[in-house]
């Protein structure tokens, strides 16, 4: 409940400050940029001085097989939220695969420590309630950097509050739950250390880089299976109203909900190229990282969305492991 109240208060403050934060030099999707930059700087400072050193120490003292097992364990718990959100989005095939993943990894993967489902052909579907709202036409609203949690939007901020209810850790006794939250955070932050190094080397403006990566990644995940394929230009008769020379047929508007289940035929979660021209493909550690971004051209593309998740300090209720 405290998390829900904190997120709600942050969103309310963003609404109040939006009137004085807009201006001619603001990005169209980021009217709160001055406030966001302040929050981003605080998050980045905490991450640089506390979160990243802890994650590096964890990597040094923990063997790689054990780190992989811990990451798999929390990822398996996160599949519960994926199941719920896929059902809410009417992605029945994806939800069925998530149920099978969780069952197989829990029963035959020693409680999820070993990921057996992925090699068996059951892909992981990263979903959250923010994507569920987007599926049914709720606009994202302005870009918003949350304290601790990092990159978000008005819609995704509300989604985080709901995703808390899908996290099994919230239903465990505090004596066990709190150490597991810490382990989850350290594991998720450790997985993003490589993306952080890329961010430090590639970004002239870390804030813009993380923002563009996050926005592009969320667009890619939102429109998965809903974008019309690009069509060839129509070179029909110039006098034809629908066939002007060189004019491409307009694709169907993305974002409208489809009630049929895309299933396994949906495209992968790989990110499109960021419009900013920076190579990008990632809820985890925040300050970072999804977006989740592109989900141009550069060999750094696959890691940029992860960099977006790496900037904040604490993972969301259900971090990138979800």
Strand order of the largest sheet: 1-2
**SSE series:** HHHHHEEHHHHEEH
Strand content: under 5%
How large is the count of helical segments? 10
Query: What radius of gyration results from the CA coordinates?
Result: 20 Å
Helix content: 40-55%
What does this structure look like?
- The protein has 10 helices and 4 strands; from the N terminus they run αααααββααααββα.
- It has helices at 2-21, 33-61, 64-88, 92-108, 129-135, 154-163, 174-191, 193-202, 206-222, 301-310; strands at 143-146, 150-153, 233-234, 247-248.
- The strands form 2 sheets. It has a two-stranded antiparallel sheet with strand order 1-2. The chain has a two-stranded antiparallel ribbon with strand order 3-4.
- The longest helix has 29 residues, at 33-61.
């Amino acid at each position: 409940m405290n998390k829900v109240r904190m997120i709600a208060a942050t969103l309310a403050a963003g609404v109040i400050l939006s009137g004085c934060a807009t201006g001619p030099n603001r990005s169209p999707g980021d009217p709160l940029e001055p406030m966001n930059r302040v929050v981003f700087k605080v998050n980045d400072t905490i991450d640089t001085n506390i979160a990243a050193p802890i994650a590096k120490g964890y990597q040094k003292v923990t063997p790689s097989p054990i780190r992989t097992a811990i990451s798999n364990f929390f990822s398996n718990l996160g599949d519960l939220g994926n199941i719920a959100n896929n059902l809410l989005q009417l992605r029945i095939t994806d939800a069925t695969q998530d149920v099978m993943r969780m069952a197989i990894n829990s029963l035959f993967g020693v409680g999820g420590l070993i990921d057996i489902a992925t090699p068996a052909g059951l892909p992981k579907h990263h979903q959250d309630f923010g994507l569920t709202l987007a599926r049914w036409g709720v606009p994202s609203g302005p870009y918003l950097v949350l304290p601790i949690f990092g990159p978000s939007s008005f819609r995704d901020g509300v989604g985080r509050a709901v995703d808390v209810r899908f996290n099994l850790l919230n239903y465990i006794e505090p004596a066990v739950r709190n150490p597991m939250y810490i382990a989850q955070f350290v594991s998720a932050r450790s997985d993003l250390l490589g993306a952080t190094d890329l961010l430090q080397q590639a970004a002239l403006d870390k804030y813009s880089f993380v923002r563009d990566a996050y926005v592009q990644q969320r667009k890619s995940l939102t429109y998965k299976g809903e974008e019309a394929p690009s069509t060839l230009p129509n070179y029909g008769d110039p006098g034809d109203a629908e066939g002007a020379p060189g004019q491409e047929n307009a694709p169907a508007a993305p974002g409208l909900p489809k009630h049929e289940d895309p299933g396994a035929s949906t495209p992968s979660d790989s990110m499109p190229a960021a419009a900013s021209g920076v190579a990008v493909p990632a809820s985890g550690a925040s300050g970072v990282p999804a977006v989740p971004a592109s989900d141009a051209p550069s060999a750094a593309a696959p890691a940029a969305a992860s960099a977006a998740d790496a900037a904040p300090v604490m993972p969301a209720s259900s971090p990138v492991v979800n």
